[in-house]
Amino acid sequence: MRTEIKWTDLTRREISWRLGERGTPAGRGVVKQLLKTHGFVKRKARKKVEMGPRHPDRNAQFENIARLKQEYLAAGQPVVSIDTKKKELLGNFYRDGKLYTREAIGVFDHDFPSAASGAVFPHGLYDLKLNRAHINLGTSHETSEFACDSIERWWQQQGRPQYPQAAQLLLLCDGGGSNSASRYVFKEQLQKLAERVGLEIRVAHYPPYCSKYNPIEHRLFPHVTRACQGVVFHTTGIVRELMKRPKPAQGCRSR
Questions:
Q1: Is 224 a domain residue?
Q2: Which of 121, 229, 236, 244 is buried most, with the most CB atoms less than 10 Å from its CB?
Q3: How many other C-beta atoms are found inside a 10 Å radius of the C-beta of residue 222?
Q4: 111 and 221 housed in the same domain
Q5: In a domain, 48, yes or no
Q6: DSSP states of the chain as a string?
Q7: Considering its fold, how many domains does the chain have in total?
Q8: Digit-coded pLDDT (tens) for 61-119
Q9: Under 8 Å between Cβ of 106 and 147
Q10: Are residues 114 and 223 in the same domain?
């Protein structure tokens, strides 16, 4: 019980044996009490240590995003959080999670992309005001063109019918990926999209290493992950049906 010890992967039985070897016999019940007394409980690691330096304008950007959201929502203009979920290989590949089955499901012992029949790139859009979500599945690459096509598809199917008087659109997104703040192709495609749909589109990027604060990350993607757990993605049809299932908290629906 030295103060410099921060963790142990030993079981209570193993700790009991170690104590006995050192001349201090103690049963598992006593070990349990000792662990509790000294503040040792089972915990998971938490992703809270920032890898990069904190930008001096970090808080100012968050304040700017909060101000823009309030202004757009108050004016009845759509505010949409966007991001691309990680690529999924199509084929007989292992995926985390458990299912009720009559027998074990056999999958490949290696995840070689060369053995895949394709891949899917789920691009999500989450409407903050209506608490609704939309996912488009790409089957080639995660590009800026695909991201803008996804936004346009959402606008035609959901945005325009829900916001017939809208003249502006606010997009909340990370600073990297297909919607990177430094990617000129994204800016070019976004300008073309604005001209096609007749909207003034404004983009608010979250600061570096702050993607977890993007609303879609905790309002949609966890529910999508849970709905797809353990299912082998053999075809895009399976992926599409699974990603239509989520019913996130407080009535959010994915389409």
A1: yes
A2: 121
A3: 13
A4: yes
A5: no
A6: --TT-------HHHHHHHHHHTT----HHHHHHHHHHTT---------S-SSPPPTTHHHHHHHHHHHHHHHHHTT--EEEEEEPPPEEESS---SS----SSPPP--SS--GGG-SEEEEEEEEEETTTTEEEEEEESS---HHHHHHHHHHHIIIIIHHH-TT--EEEEEE-SSGGG-TT-HHHHHHHHHHHHHHT-EEEEEEPPTT-GGGSHHHHHTHHHHHHHHTT----SHHHHHHHHT----GGG-EE-
A7: 2
A8: 999 999 999 999 999 999 999 999 999 999 999 999 998 888 889 999 999 999 999 99
A9: no
A10: yes
Residues 85 and 116 in one domain: yes
Q: Please, what sign has the CA dihedral across residues 107, 235, 178, 184?
A: positive
Distance of CA 112 to the CA centre of its chain: 24
If asked whether residues 146 and 199 sit together in one domain, one would say yes
Residue 70 region by backbone torsions, left for phi larger than 0, else alpha for psi between -120 and 50, else beta:
alpha
**65 φψ region: left (φ > 0), alpha (ψ -120 to 50), beta (else):** alpha
Domain span at 33: 9-43
d(CA 111, CA 119): 12
State the Cα–Cα distance between residues 75 and 69, nearest whole angstrom. Answer: 10
Answer yes or no: do 22 and 98 share one domain. no
pLDDT in tens, 207-237: 988 888 999 999 999 999 999 999 999 999 9
Measured in whole angstroms, the distance separating CA 153 from the mean position of its chain's CA atoms is: 21
In-domain check, residue 1: no
Domain co-membership, 23 together with 80: no
* 204 contacts 65 by C-beta, under 8 angstroms: yes
- Residue pLDDT, tens place only, 120-148: 999 999 999 999 999 999 999 999 999 99
Do 63 and 15 share a structural domain? no
